[in-house]
Amino acid sequence: MDGEVELRVDGEVRRLRVDNRTTLLDALREGLGVTSPKKGCDHGQCGACTVLLDGRRAVTCLSFAVAHDGAEVVTAAGLARDGERHPVQEAFLERDALQCGFCTPGQVCSAVGVLDEVRAGHPSVVTADLTGPVDLSAEEVRERMSGNLCRCGAYVHIVEAVRDGAR
Predict the structure, then answer these.
(1) Which backbone phi and psi does 71 adopt, to 5 degrees?
(2) Is the pLDDT of residue 89 over 90?
(3) How many domains does the chain have?
(4) Are 161 and 118 in contact (CB under 8 A)?
(5) Distance between CA 50 and CA 94 in Å, rounded?
(6) Strand 50-53's sheet: what is its strand order?
């Protein structure tokens, strides 16, 4: 069965017809030509396909496109505004938080989502004080970013980039 889906992708309303079994990742990449989210493991384990879906980070390889009709999707490419990179994108460049770059779009979207969660006061498993503001320690960043894998091992720089992006 086919279904029609309307998505707002990086600020632009896009429509496409998809099979009901089409993942959001395949709809973005194959249907709309939006290649910022990457197909890594296709099992929700690596985070390469992470986007901001209605303001929250989500792995798109585990979501059916038809379940997100009318959703707002922001990819790493859509984070920049008026020709200016997002502060997290700048921090990734400044900290050299990438090597091959395959995981970078998912890492950046996840980092933006992490910072939004921290600002909202959402604790993680390692948050020490559940009553006050979240301290964005390296341990806190590692825990929150643990769903995003980097094959090159740029983790030290990624953690610092996320912390810089918070500033």
Answers:
(1) -80, 160
(2) yes
(3) 2
(4) no
(5) 22
(6) 12-19, 2-9, 72-74, 50-53, 56-59
pLDDT of residue 3: 86
For a pLDDT cut of 90, what percent of the chain falls above it? 91
CATH number of the domain residue 121 falls in: 1.10.150.120
- 72 and 93 belong to one structural domain: no
Task: Find the domain containing 33 and state its range.
Answer: 2-78
Single-letter amino acid, residue 125: V
Tokens 């994108």 label which residue? 89
**CA 165 → CA 16, 45, 106, 111, distances in Å?**
34, 24, 15, 8
Asked if 51 and 62 count as a contact pair (C-beta separation under 8 A), the reply is no
Integer Cα distance of 130 and 134 in angstroms: 8
- Which of 78, 97, 132 marks a domain boundary? 78
Pairing of strands 50-53, 72-74: antiparallel
C-alpha radius of gyration, the chain, whole number: 16
* Mean pLDDT in residue range 156-160: 98
- 89 HSE (CA, 13 A, CB side): 13
In this predicted structure, the answer to whether residue 43 has a pLDDT above a threshold of 80 is: yes
Domain edge (last residue) among 78, 106, 141: 78
